[in-house]
Automatic annotation (TrEMBL):
CC terms in the record's Gene Ontology section: mitochondrial large ribosomal subunit
Membership in a protein family: Belongs to the universal ribosomal protein uL22 family.
BP terms from Gene Ontology: translation
PANTHER family, per the entry: CHLOROPLAST 50S RIBOSOMAL PROTEIN L22-RELATED, LARGE RIBOSOMAL SUBUNIT PROTEIN UL22M
Gene3D superfamilies for the chain: Ribosomal protein L22/L17 (3.90.470.10)
Domain of life: Eukaryota
Pfam families per record: Ribosomal_L22
Keywords: Ribonucleoprotein, Ribosomal protein
Residues covered by region (Disordered): 1-50
Entry GO MF terms: structural constituent of ribosome
Start-end of Basic and acidic residues biased regions: 16-41
The protein's name: 5849_t:CDS:1
Amino acid sequence: MLKSAHPELGASSVFDLEHEKEKKEEIPKITDQSDSRYTEAKKKHTEHRYSTTNFHISPRKLSLLANQIAGKSLNEAIKQMEFSPKQASNKIMNSLITARCHAWRYKAMEADKCYIEQAWVGKGIYRKKPNYGARGRFSWLKMKKAHMKYVIKERKSVEEVEGIGRKRKLKGFNYEKKKVWTPLIEDKPIYNPTRFYNW
């Protein structure tokens, strides 16, 4: 039996398992923080993107789950999907667990610091199905499919201010811009005084 010059293109490529194994490159898995690949991945990667496959659900129904997990920490989002009564929550929960595992193994992102920055829903292929009615009439039903994509990022460490402790980021409340009370200057001249005291 003659072997072709390109076994991967012909029908005989099924039997050339050793040739295929040599061509495949192993994906590096980071499991130890002392590994040099851990520090390299920590510098390179700041986010991880993951997507589910298209499955049978309406995009409108799936968008309710996307709104529920957007902005939350990764572990909290998994808990929300675990106890959600929605039918699609089980698939979303499993995909979040896989994304958490991939973010740690390949991009050295710690699960406790990760959060879902964005979560959105995309439409899949719509399949038509006849809906038969009385007297030979029928209409078309749309069998909808959808998928969910999300961006996972790692929270930055909170800065510490001297003498205050951890800096709290609250709306309208900033330690750095807070002014210290100072007494009024008695010698300051008053120009264009009003009829009433305003100091």
